[in-house]
Amino acid sequence: MRYHGWRIVFSSGTDYESELVRNRLADADIPVVLLSQRDHAWNLCHGYLAKVRVLVPEAYREEAEALLSAPPVTVEELEALAQPEHR
Hints:
The mean pLDDT is 84. By secondary structure, the protein is an alpha+beta fold. The longest helix has 13 residues, at 15-27. The protein has a three-stranded antiparallel beta sheet with strand order 1-3-2, with helices on one face. The chain has helices spanning 15-27, 61-69, 75-81, and strands spanning 6-12, 33-36, 52-57.
């Protein structure tokens, strides 16, 4: 599916997964929007019309995909960032 000037970089059947991805991209200063087609009245979470899609402008697609495919931050890295010299 195509949206003029925007590309889907992630889709899920749940709002919270897509929100996590949206927040990660937004923290990296990547413009991002969510397109929810979920039927919240019946709480459907499968099928084509139950998707929550994360879209970024075409110019940011490669950067967003690279960020999302990068390995997660380790506990050690988080602890190092929490040290006083990083504040």
